[in-house]
Amino acid sequence: MIHLHRRQLLTWGAALAAMPYAKAQSDTVKIGLILPMTGQQASTGRQIEAAVKLWQAQHGTKAGGKTVEVILKDDAAVPDTTRRLAQELVVNDKVAVLAGFGITPCAMATAPIATQSKTPMVVMAAATSAITQASPFIVRTSFTLPQATVGLADWAAKNGIKKAVSLVADYGPGFDAEKYFDSQFRLDGGQMLDKLRTPLRSPDFAPVLQKVRDLHPDALFVFLPSGQGAQFMKQFGERGLDKAGIRLIATGDVTDDDQLNDMGDVALGVITSHHYSAAHPSAANKQFVAAFEKANKFRPNFMAVGGYDGMRVIYTALNATKGKGGQALLDAMKGQLFESPRGPVLIDAQTRDIVQDIYIRKVERVNGQLWNVEFDTLKAVKDPGKTK
Ligand code: PHB
Question: What is the separation, in whole angstroms, between the first and last Cα of the chain?
Fold first, then answer.
């Protein structure tokens, strides 16, 4: 039997009393999830939050032997707010991972914080090519605009479209879409009649659509960020561009599954290219869509899949490092290969960007609902925007 002195007992007592707190600290690993839950991009926040919750409901809240705590913050898609929240999450909450990022400027504003604090940063939504080059700690589970655009330009040139006009949101991903559509379409023998842009905030499509009507191209190519598609489609129909014989082709952001079903007949027949459709006919996707709809009463879009896969990448990496963060966690994110609801994906170890299939789709009515029905697949597309 061990005899303890009173002093020893007191010290041990103090240590024991402190233990639950210390234990809780070391047994928990935190993810700082920054999303636009309010404002113009709120549908992105709603989709990704729902997907993150679904992931944890299906896979539990343990990874690498630790409890995974998600701390959700609303940045309203304002870059200065994103940066401030990221700083607080790293310094005060000591998060192991920063995640989310609804639009490109918010991801760009946070990149230096990831670099300085050596915190892996998982971009689940934003899609300008250059984002992954802004910090060696960035990993992306969404897509890139060059990746989604090049195949559509090819499709257009091969399908009787000779003259086109482009219309993009006037910021990073729009510039990527405009540039990569233009160069591929012209390489394929097409002619660009004009390249038009609308502001990211509160765009009015009437003046540009009038311009497109006057130019009368074979097709109008469009990129607008998730959330703007329904309003655009409505005005496209109201101005009679579809009746005037101008075909609408777009990245899948425009026929976003979050809004598609409410767009009406004007959306029928629109050809888009993208990495995810809720109608993707794999078993994995059917399970994902069924579980997501059951939990949320709305259809998942490509943002939800970026969030769901982002959680998978984080959980897999935490399991590999036994909950360790920093460079080890980042390294464990690189090179992951898995079947996503969208199809097979790879986190390229060199670029930290996602390699994935891109689908050419057509909006069709199936069983009374509008869907992006995939009819062609471009296999394992790397981001064409990467120079190495
Ligand atoms: C972006 O800002 O990078 C962005 C946002 C929404 C999209 C695509 C890209 O649908």
Answer: 68
